[in-house]
Amino acid sequence: MAIIRFIREGIDIECKPGENLRELVIREKLQLYGLKGILGNCGGVGQCSTCFVSVEGGAKNSLSPLTSVEEEKLNNRPDNWRLACQTLINSSAVILTKPQSPPSNLKDLKESAESKKLPR
């Protein structure tokens, strides 16, 4: 089992390797989308670019490699951003949902998340 630590939400969620990150977020009723994504997301096929997440920790290969869709859609975005709909979980990772609108206390949230050991 893998653990995905969600920084903004302050929770850890256990999941199976191979699970899709977007499906995990939706199943757990976390908020993945901003207003644009709520009104017009593509349903997980990688076309709307509204399910951004930021990978803040975990092993280098804790998530699947970038897909060709992500390589196109994430051009000019930070290197640690992913599209949740295109991302499969390999092992434990630390994720920030909606990185395009970070919380004002992001530094404190990151420090708290990093202070707890993440299982591999």
- For this structure, what is the CATH class? Alpha Beta
- The average pLDDT score comes to 92
Largest sheet: 5 strands, mixed
Radius of gyration, in angstroms, nearest whole number: 13 Å
Give the N-to-C terminal Cα separation: 9 Å
Shape: globular
Query: Considering DSSP H and I runs of 4 or more, what fraction of the residues is helical?
Result: 10-25%
| Number of structural domains | 1
Helix count, DSSP H or I runs of 4 or more residues: 4
Please trace the helix and strand order, writing H or E for each element: EEHHEHEEH
CATH architecture label name: Roll
Strand order of the largest sheet: 2-1-5-3-4
**Poorly predicted runs of 5 or more residues:** none
Report the CATH topology name.
Ubiquitin-like (UB roll)
Q: What is the CATH H-level superfamily? A: Beta-grasp domain
Strand content: 15-25%
Which class do the helix and strand fractions yield? alpha+beta
Number of strands: 5
Region (Disordered): 99-120
Biased composition (Basic and acidic residues): 107-120
GO molecular function: 2 iron, 2 sulfur cluster binding; electron transfer activity; metal ion binding
Domain 2Fe-2S ferredoxin-type: 2-101
Question: How does this structure look, described?
Answer:
The chain is 24% helix and 21% strand. It has 120 residues and is of the alpha+beta class. The protein has one domain: Ubiquitin-like (UB roll) (Roll), CATH 3.10.20.30. It has a five-stranded mixed sheet with strand order 2-1-5-3-4, covered by helices on one side. A hairpin with a 4-residue loop joins strand 1 and strand 2. It starts with a strand and ends in a 5-residue tail after the last helix.
